[in-house]
Please model this.
Amino acid sequence: MKFQAIIFDLDGVICYTDEYHYLAWKAMADSLGVPFDRTVNNRLRGVSRMESLDIILERYNGTLSRAEKEALAEQKNELYKQYLSRMSPADLTDEVRSTLNILDEMGLLLAIGSSSKNAPFILQQIGLGGYFDAVSDGNNITRSKPDPEVFLKAAQMLCLEPSQCLVVEDAVSGAQAGHAGGFQVACLGDASAAGAGEYNLSTFSELLDVVGAEERIPYGA
Ligand code: BG6
Ligand code: MG
Model:
């Protein structure tokens, strides 16, 4: 088989928490009077919570102390967690669920590589707590995407080399992280539209073609 494992980003790949990130950041930005829209929001994909805040504050007229910034990040996270607490296994689409199950049945190891500190809670909410062979997330890394740390740690947990694993991402920063770590990358959403991966997919289930396919377009060709 071409790959022995697949390492999935979580937000925007397995489930659509990216919209909740947007709504929670939007509420925080509105409370500060800072302009924030979906274009800025796209720059936050894959980026850590505090780095996301710094990007939003590029449009803030003034300076904030470290403690004030931490309070703002906490305010956003509290609202974000309220959205997450309303999630359930119904938020996992049939397409994602059945594709994961087929990949699992093919004997592939399946892992998560997410910058989010909320990843374990989200997986629990959508009924995937304990499903993955490894979970590498914002709680076990010191540098977020585009640094490859989160994916390298996932590969390490699986006892595999990057060349044996496929990374799946919706963020350009995440695709860059995969490449920086020596992984091939399958992209969805924004990253796919940007042509950021070796495989730029329209749907999650196209992953089945990727793992079965003989041919691939070399990255950058
Ligand atoms: C990533 C999201 O998965 O997690 C980013 O794409 C987010 O937008 C990051 O900032 C950190 O998330 P959390 O849940 O730790 O605030
Ligand atoms: Mg994502």
Notes: The longest strand covers residues 109-113. The chain has two domains: 5-16+89-211, 18-84. The first helix runs from residue 18 to 32. The chain is about 45% helix and 10% strand.
